[in-house]
Design a protein that fits this description.
The protein is an alpha+beta fold. It is built from 13 helices and ten strands. Strand 8 and strand 9 form a beta hairpin.
Length: 454
């Protein structure tokens, strides 16, 4: 069931409840009004009769009073009333029976709802000249019920028409205001399919307009992220191809030539008819030197592909060796490294990520910063009971005055941020012109060991 239908069903039920409650209230008031009207009419008639009878002089003929009372009882058109006259020993007027259902044009169900309890008033007239005369006044609510039905039926019909029209109008308006939901659903379906260039139009309802703005912002962020991921993937492939080309070049220049030299020495030995010890020793020495060179080249290549010192000595020792080696090759810049309370056993992915982040940062400093000092600190911190590694890299170079979003597309920073996010960490870059760059990284620690390096 759609939202539009559900809302209309709910509103219809509310209108029905309103109609029932209103009908109950109107009919309840109508019953009270009818009861008060017929009762007051009966009492008023009795007072008039008393007034007329008492106005007669005592010496006048009492038969005239009796004739007056009989005349009143014979008035069939007396509103709401039936009057009977009787003496102590005889009924002077025939009792008139009436049925409210027969005397009214209102529906029987309405009559049963508003009909008041029977109203009957009895009184006696006493006089020293004649015997006591009794009067019985019975109220007939038929006329009052007819008038009440005319009023109530009109009100109920108007209320029913209003409810029908209001319900139809609300159905149309709800459909009109909820129509943009289909557009939003189409947009979400497009986002699911990767169509991040979609934009929702402006809506008149403030709530839907906020949804439209947030949707458009989300689509823009996803589109930018897709573009950044594409550039990052492209850069990753370029780095991979560059590394392969470099390895191929090194294999060709170093290993290829060295192996060719060894082969040449071996051929030279085999071509000599007479081998003297001096020549053999010289050839062996040359082959050993070439072999040592091949081993060193292979070792350097393996270290570049995967620093074995990480597995042999741990993260801290590997970083210290890398930074010491980096400092030994630089004359105008120095890197200061400090650490505190770092676990010796870290997840493999976290160790290699931290190592590569520092390695890439030092490369960036050397290429771009023109700094004289680099500071790297790594400490363990605890946030809400969870242990984290806080890595801070700071230099005193020229800094950046560019948009950081544009800066993140180069200088190896996307790769650093990608490694941080891969370990569920946070990456913050801050910089000012001529005040250097500061990178602060916080990553959670998992699978901690029991010992720590101090």
């Amino acid at each position: 069931m759609s939202l539009r239908v559900r809302l209309n069903v709910l509103i219809t039920l509310l209108f029905i409840s309103l109609f029932i409650c209103s009908s109950f209230y109107i009919i309840s008031n109508a019953r009270k009004t009818v009861h008060r009207e017929v009762e007051s009419t009966a009492h008023f008639a009795l007072k008039l009769i008393h007034l007329v009878v008492s106005s007669q002089e005592p010496e006048e003929d009492r038969d005239k009073q009796l004739e007056l009372l009989q005349s009143l009882s014979e008035l069939d058109q007396t509103r709401h009333l039936y009057i009977d006259i009787q003496k102590t020993d005889v009924i002077l007027t025939k009792t008139k029976e009436f049925n409210v259902l027969d005397n009214t044009d209102a529906p029987s169900w309405f009559v049963k709802l508003v009909q008041p309890p029977p109203t009957e008033i009895r009184d006696w007239f006493y006089s020293p000249m004649v015997a006591p005369t009794g009067i019985i006044i019975r109220a007939d609510p038929s006329d009052e019920i007819d008038e009440t039905w005319d009023e109530v039926s009109g009100i109920l019909v108007l209320l029913f028409i209003f409810i029908i029209l209001a319900n139809v109008l609300l159905y149309i308006m709800i459909g009109r205001y909820l129509a943009p939901i289909d557009t939003i659903l189409i947009g979400l379906s497009g986002i699911e399919k990767g169509q991040y260039q979609l934009e929702l139009p402006h809506f008149r309802l403030p709530e839907l307009e906020r949804i439209s703005q947030q949707f458009n912002h989300m689509a823009k962020v996803l589109l930018d992220s897709k573009a950044k991921n594409k550039l990052l993937t492209q850069r990753s492939l370029e780095i991979q191809e560059e590394e392969r080309r470099h390895l191929a070049q090194e294999l060709h220049d170093e290993l290829g030539q060295t192996i060719a030299a060894i082969k040449a020495v071996a051929v030279a030995i085999s071509n000599r008819k007479e081998l003297d010890k001096e020549h053999v020793d010289s050839s062996v020495k040359t082959i050993v030197e070439y072999s040592d060179h091949i081993y060193q080249v292979a070792k350097n290549m393996m270290h570049r592909l995967r620093p074995s010192v990480l597995d042999e000595l741990g993260l801290i020792k590997a970083l210290q060796n890398m930074i010491d080696d980096w400092n030994s090759r630089q004359d105008d810049i120095f890197c200061h490294f400090s650490f505190s309370d770092i676990p010796t056993e870290l997840p493999e992915s976290l160790k290699i990520s931290l190592y590569r982040i520092i390695q890439e940062s030092l490369t960036n400093v050397l290429k771009h910063s023109r700094a004289s000092k680099v500071s790297i600190s790594m400490n363990k911190i605890i946030i809400e009971g969870t242990e984290y590694i806080n890595l801070t890299i700071e230099d005193d170079g020229v800094g950046l005055d560019l948009d950081l979003d544009k800066t993140m597309t180069g200088m190896g920073l996307p790769g650093i941020k990608e490694r941080v996010e891969m370990n569920s960490g946070t990456f913050e870059l801050s910089s000012e012109t001529d005040k250097g760059i500061k990178i602060e990284i916080i990553v959670p620690v998992n699978n901690l060991g029991m010992s720590y390096e101090q």
